[in-house]
Amino acid sequence: MICVVLYGTIVFVEFSQILPPHNRIFNIIYIQEARLFLANTLLGLVLLFVTMSLSGKAAEALGQWSIQLEDKVDRKSRDLQNLIAKQENTLVLLQKSYDETLQGWAKILEMRDKETEGHSERVTSLAVRMAQAMGIQDETEIQSIRYGSLLHDIGKIAISDSILHKPDKLTLDERKIMEQHTEYAYHWLKDVEFLRPSLDIPRYHHEKWDGSGYCHGLKAEQIPTSARIFAVADCWDALINDRAYRKAWTWEESMDYIKKQSGKDFDPQVVEKFVEIMKDRHLLADEKNNTKGII
Description:
This protein has 295 residues and is of the alpha+beta class. The protein has helices at 56-112, 119-133, 139-150, 161-164, 172-179, 181-189, 200-204, 225-239, 251-260, 268-278, 281-289; strands at residues 2-6, 9-14, 30-38, 41-50.
């Protein structure tokens, strides 16, 4: 009888046809085992049960067959390891391509506005740090936050330069046009499957904790967690860097503003965690000496 056990489950059993049915429950005289490994992990066993005594040529033939069985299982183990290694390498290359593509998209927008150069990368770094500090450790969630942060303003590609670069306060009509950039981003990217989990940030990062944001008027925990985290990071980076309509604020002015907006624009728990992060003396020193923000 040959029995194949995979992941602890019997998946295949074959009885020798030369044994009559009643012999299939006889005491086991001999067991031959071949182990199937993948990356040092035991996947399963191939077991040969012999339920009758063998001698002479029969015993010799069984011994040779056992050696061949071990060799075949060993080759299959190596084949599986090579296949998995190739697949993992392909996934790494694919992930790298995704990252580089999104970074390229973010830079296209920054090429239109030199004053925001480096903004996407800085705010992405800070948003990821804040998410991890708030207990988000799952790499898939972190990746979604990273992608969403890089693409948060991609919808502004559809906004005219006359509005995007206007040095004065926007009119009401201009403001309505500008606010559509969140929906532009969502509708452009919603059919890209690998980006779908990341779209909460581009779509909802201008919603406010008290419900006064746009475009959907969400409030409190109706706003996705990733968007609540990103909103603080985005505001911080905007405050400490020059914009067309104002000069950069000081570190102290910016921190004071973030704190005052807790419970208004921002989730109080997110603000609390942000303040804790910024108490790190090394980060504080970097911020005071580098108005480009956190990198």
